[in-house]
Structure formats: structure tokens, C-alpha cells
Amino acid sequence: MPPEKGVGTALTRLPGIGARLAEKLGKLGIRRVEDLPFHLPARYEDRTRVLRVGELRPGVSALVEGEVTASEVTGGRRQRLVCRISDGTGHLELVFFHFYGAQRQKLVRGARLRLFGEARPGPVMLQMVHPEWSLVEPDAPPPTGGFIPVYPSTEGLTQLQIRRAMAAALEQVDTLQEWLPEALRAALKLPSLSAALRHVHAPETDADIAALIEGRDPAVRRLAFEELLAHRLSLLRLRAEHQRVAPAPALNVEGELPGALLTQLGFALTQAQQRVHAEIKADLATTEPMLRLVQGDVGSGKTVVAALATLSAVESGWQAAVMAPTELLTEQHYRSFMGWLEPLGVQVDWLGGRLSAAAHRQALLNLAEGRTQVVIGTHALFQEAVVFHRLGLVVVDEQHRFGVHQRLALRDKGGGHIQPHQLVMTATPIPRTLAMTAYADLDVSVIDELPPGRTPVQTVALPDSRRDEVMDRVRVACKEGRQVYWVCALIEASDVLEAEAAEATAERMRTHLPDVRVGLVHGRLKAEEKEAAMHAFEQGELDLLVATTVIEVGVNVPNASLMVIENAERFGLAQLHQLRGRVGRGEAVSSCVLLYKSPLSQTARARLSVLRESNDGFRIARRDLEIRGPGELLGTRQTGELNYRIADLLRDGDLLDHVQQAAATLLQQYPDATQALIDRWVGAGERYAQV
Ligand code: ADP
Ligand code: MG
After folding, report:
1. Which ligand 1 atom minimizes the distance to the CA of 273?
2. What radius of gyration do the chain's Cα atoms show?
3. Predicted confidence (pLDDT) at residue 544 exceeds the cutoff of 90
4. What spacing in Å lies between the alpha carbon of 319 and ligand 1's midpoint?
5. Nearest alpha carbon, ligand 1 atom 16
6. Cα–Cα distance between 461 and 456 in angstroms, integer?
7. CA 302–ligand 2 middle distance (angstroms)
8. Beta bridge partners of 121
9. Least confident among 32-41, 324-333, 428-437
10. Which residues form the Helicase C-terminal domain (predicted)?
11. Which of 319, 336, 416, 497 has its CA 20 to 30 A from that of 598?
12. Which residue has its alpha carbon closest to ligand 1 atom 10?
């Protein structure tokens, strides 16, 4: 294999691989000769020993030997050859739908065969259909087949074809460059690249096959390590490139505005808020563009920390933009920011679909001419029509699904010669393992403390056969002057169906609880209708708010102390925790009822019990990761970025600290290795081509 540079070596350069075969391999992500060795076997066929026929079980692929006891051609027009063999411990039937005369002459009574195939249940006894077979002499030496790899494949691609291609590639495996420094491999007890590849593709007859398949074998760990390292290097490089494009404005972080806000707040920042505020300040004060993720559980007080950052921008003569994923949330932020910033003389504006055309035009003008100092809006803020006068800071709220590409797009709003600082905030705590891989390009701050006086939400899970009881609880709570959310969402349902479900539920509530003032919010309502309902609920004019997950993020009504969630078993834990975070924001002891449809699956039961037992978003996210895997947790967008060929974040999580250290070392001391590893594992720019 020539050096892995650029596009690499075309597969068709290997003997026996034509364009069609190359195309099929491409479907497996194998595009270059260099990719082949990193396509690992899914399992191995054990041809190291001969199994007794009596030991065969359906579904087992094995090597057996026996003597033909019967052989005949049956069937009318579509003839087949059926033989039986025995080794004294049991009988096995062999079926050939295609056969030749010569074959028939060899498979006669008394012939001794060595066979390899998968045993399946047949009408009379276990069968093998089209096994591999050969005649053996009575004193034939034991088999030397070893463990034969079985590769993940795709339609029209046989194991034999993959194995041949692999064999050709493996002949050149020694020419693959070893990029992990000797000292690093020694410290982690990782084998060399060529030794690791040989071992996984052609294990010795005494290899621990289970360890290979489960990824415990040092050879697999070595490959996973290298892959994780390459991805981390790639993200770090992306970050470096990002920051090189243009400097950010160095902001005055010691001005008067932040201090003025703090004295006027009516509460003191928690220790955690203070720490994170300081971390942000340190970033903002330099021309290196900030790329920081703030993680904080629901209710940990991220908004005020963001507001403080926007004040540093304003103080220094720069604009700040605050984005949130839903209009509802932007409206709420707008109210908070207005409440905090307007008394300080700061011009805050809101940009959203509800504005009239004229008001919208005016808002755009105010932004472009610099009259607006802080603007709140959805991601529409980053449409081309929106022009900033001097954008110095972007805050992205509730957006852990905000990928590398979007982050890159944001910097362009700075006008080219300068780029804004970026602050991303999320209430879905990402377990460290994920954060380190998905967000290697971000610095991470954690607000790991709730403001004082919060009582944990008591959570129970009930089958929906007990709905009446729950309705009673709702009635009692409302009578006591408390407010209630009833969340009825359907997962994977359309907006329309979800809205219908919510409407039906609201109707039922109105009928069954005549004394309760019921409101309704769902995604199909007009913005004004949603706003009106939310506003009425906030003002205490409604007792019960029936809603879909539009209330998932951010909504803040301290008097609400009971939440009921229907179809809870269908939600992700992180999402349930988010929803639940809408209550427990005030003085009253709050509770959350998870209604589920019985019977519950084992997994669903496990998930719901995590929520009952914990109020710690980080713990919950970790369990969610274990139960559902990283793709689900991060959402589809990021899944692409976490599509590893070999590594598995759950299995290999313990490697990540070492990966982080190794990445730093490589960047400093082995720049060639950095580029080569990224080429090898992440592809020659392919992944980021679609930005
Ligand atoms: P989240 O982190 O979920 O976005 P918010 O920023 O919405 O949380 O804060 C939740 C509530 O807590 C708000 O009403 C906010 O004003 C209040 N809050 C924030 N920080 C503190 C604090 N240090 N002490 C008391 N209340 C606080
Ligand atoms: Mg928030």
C-alpha cells in the first residue's frame, strides 16, 4: 500500500477487484485499499476442531466429519441430491439443489467427508444445505482451517470476495505506517498496527475469540484507540482552523454593566454560576474566539450567566445575539432579558415570525444600524437577510444538538474580518465520554449546582389504568391554588396527530374537572394563541395546561408543582428529565407522574426507574447513554459525527482520557502523524465536505 495521502489507492488496483466489486465494497465504507484492513470481522467460523455430529445444534456453523450412509437424487423436475452422513454420534442430512455428475459419484455410500456448514432444522433431522465438503482419508490429519473471519457484508457481495480482497490488502499490511509513538503504545500495552490487524483478520488457533468479538482484545482496543484519537485530532484541528479564520473582539469584561445587573438581580449567583461566569469572562477578554459549551441542569440558572456575557459585549460596543430553538422560548428569554437589561439602558429586541412585516423590517434596520444591542430570536437570526452592525457574541441556548457545521456557519455573521465569540448552553448534560468526542472543539463549563431552596421533584410511575386517580390529584392540586402541566405527546407522530391528542385530552379534562381552568398549547396553534395560553398560565389565569413537548425547554412558571406525562415509556430519559424540570421551580414540593401503557418492557421499566431514583441530570444522561446509545442521545445530526468504524463509546469509554492526552502530544510533537491519522480514519475531508 503506497502512503495514505489524499484519495488513497483505488480498490481496483488490487488483483481480482473490478469496478463493480469496488462499488459494492464502497457501500461498506471501503473506498480505498487502505480502508480494507479496518473493516473488521463480525464473527469467526471455528474451523479449528471437528465437532461431533451429535453435538450440532441448529444455527451452529461447524466442521464435522462422517461417513455417507445414504445418497439419492429426489424430486421431479427440480432435482436435488440428498445424502445422509453419520459419525456414530448422530445423523446429518446434506442437501444440494445444484450438483454435477462427478459430485454424485463421489458422494456415495461409504465415502468419508469433511464438511463445513450451518446446521438447520430439517423435516427429519438437522440439515446442511450446500455445505463446503471434501473427501478425507480415514487417517487424515486434523484440520488446519483456523478461525475464518466472517465480515459484515452487503447485497451481492460474498464472503469469499471480501476475504480475497482482504487477503490481498493484508499482504501489504506492513507498509501501513505506524503512527502511534512507541512510548505511548508501551504505556497502554497496545500492539503495533500490523500485529493488531493480522490478529483480528487471522487469529491464531488458540486466540480468545470472544475477546475479539467483544472488543476486549488488545488488538481491537488498539484500533479503537487510534480511531478515537483520529477523530479527536480532526475536531481539534477544525477548532484551530475555525479560530484562525478571523479574530474575535477582545471585550471589556470588567465594565460596569455586569456589576449593575448583579446588584439588581435580587439573588446572589451560586458558586457554580460564579465559576462559569469567570471562565466565560476569561474567554471574552481575548481575541481568540470563544467556543464554549455551558452545561447545567434544568433550573441551574444558565440564562443569567448568558445575560452577563451579553453585557460585556454591549459595554464594549458590540452586539450580542441570543438564539433559542423555539419561538416560545425566545419570547420567554425576551421577557427575562428585558427585565434585566432594559433598566440598565440596554436596547433589547426580539425577532420572530409574529412581527408584522413593517415591524420586522424596522427590527432588521435597527440591528443593521447598530441601534439594537442585544437581539433574541430563533435560528432565523442566521438567515442571510439578517445583517448585524457589529456582532461580537452569539449565545445559543438549549442546543446540545448544535453541530460543528452550524458553529462554523455562525462565525460568518461577524462580517469576515472579525468573528463573534460563541457560547452554547444546554440543559441536557452530555456524559463526559460523549462531550469529549462530540465536542472536542468546544471548551466545556459545568453549572453543577442548583440555586438554593429548590426541593427535588418527587417522581412516580403509574400505569395509565390509574388515570382516574391521577385526575383526582390534579383536581386537588388546582383546588389548593397550585398549577399543573399535563403533557400528552406522541413520539414519532405528526404535529397534527399530536395536536389532536392534546385537544382530546384538554376536552376530557374540561368535562371531568369542571372547576379547573384548562388551557392548551401545541405546535399547531398560531403563535399568538400559544403565547396567549402560556401567558395566561404564567399569570395564574389557568390552573391546568395541557401541552405537547413544545413546553419542553426553558418554560418557567414557579407556581406549577405537578406534572403528568403521558406515554412516558416512549420518551428518552433526558427528555423526560427536561420536561420534569418545568416543575420544582418554586417553594412548593413538586411531583411528576409518569403515566405508562402497561405492560412495560424490561428496558422501559429500567429507564423509568432511573427517573424515579434520581434528579441529577448528569446521572440520568449517563444511564440514557448506557441504555440507548449515543446516537439517540445526541439526535441524528450528531450521530453522523459519531459513526465509528471500530470504536464504541460505551465499550471504549475508558480509553478517552488517554486519547485526550495522546492528541495533545501528537499535535505538539508529531504533526505528520496528525494529518495522516485524520486521513486514515476520518477520510480525506469527505466528512466535512457537506458543510
Ligand atoms: P436554566 O438553567 O434551566 O435555563 P434559568 O436560567 O431559566 O435556568 O433559571 C431558572 C430560574 O432560577 C429563573 O427564574 C432564574 O431567575 C432563577 N435563578 C437563576 N440563578 C439563581 C440564583 N443564583 N439564585 C436564585 N435564583 C436563580
Ligand atoms: Mg434555560
Report:
1. 23
2. 32
3. yes
4. 24
5. 301
6. 16
7. 6
8. 126
9. 428-437
10. 480-650
11. 497
12. 299
393 neighbors 270 (Cβ within 8 angstroms): no
Total-model pTM? 0.69
CATH topology of domain 49-144: OB fold (Dihydrolipoamide Acetyltransferase, E2P) (2.40.50)
Among protein residues, the one with the nearest Cα to ligand 1's atom 17 is 301
**C-alpha angle with apex 212: 209 to 215, nearest 5 degrees?**
150
> Which residues are CB-contacts of 108 (< 8 A; sequence separation ≥ 6)?
68, 71
The residues of the chain that CATH labels 3.40.50.300 are: 257-447, 458-614
Q: Specify the range with the lowest mean pLDDT, choosing from 323-337, 353-367, 535-549.
A: 323-337
* DSSP-derived pairing of the beta strands 348-351 and 391-396: unpaired
Q: Which atom of ligand 1 is nearest to the CA of 269?
A: 23
Sheet with 348-351, side-by-side order of all strands:
348-351, 374-377, 319-323, 391-396, 421-426, 291-296, 443-447
Q: Report which ligand 1 atom has the smallest distance to the Cα of 298.
A: 3
Instruction: Give the dihedral of Cα atoms 110, 112, 116, 121; nearest 10 deg.
Output: 30
CA of 566 to the centre of ligand 1 (A): 27
Any idea which ligand is nearest the CA of 453? 1
CATH no., domain 257-447: 3.40.50.300
| CA–CA separation, 38 and 35 (whole Å) | 6
Cell 449515543 belongs to 630
Instruction: Specify the CATH superfamily of domain 458-614.
Output: P-loop containing nucleotide triphosphate hydrolases (3.40.50.300)
Considering only CA atoms, which of 57, 63, 154 is closest in space to residue 114? 63
- C-alpha distances out from residue 268 to 243, 258, 271, 335, 582, Å: 34, 13, 9, 20, 22
Span from the CA of 450 to the centroid of ligand 1 (angstroms)? 8
Lookup: cell for 447? 453549572
Choice between 35 and 684, residue whose per-residue pLDDT is larger:
35
Query: So what's the pLDDT on residue 319?
Result: 97
70 or 2, higher pLDDT: 70
Q: According to the model, what pLDDT value does residue 4 have? A: 47
Q: Which residues line ligand 1 (CB under 6 A)?
A: 267, 269-270, 273, 296, 298-304, 427, 451, 554, 556
Q: DSSP class of residue 687?
A: G
Q: Is the pLDDT of residue 640 over 50?
A: no
- Which atom of ligand 1 has the smallest separation from the CA of 303? 6
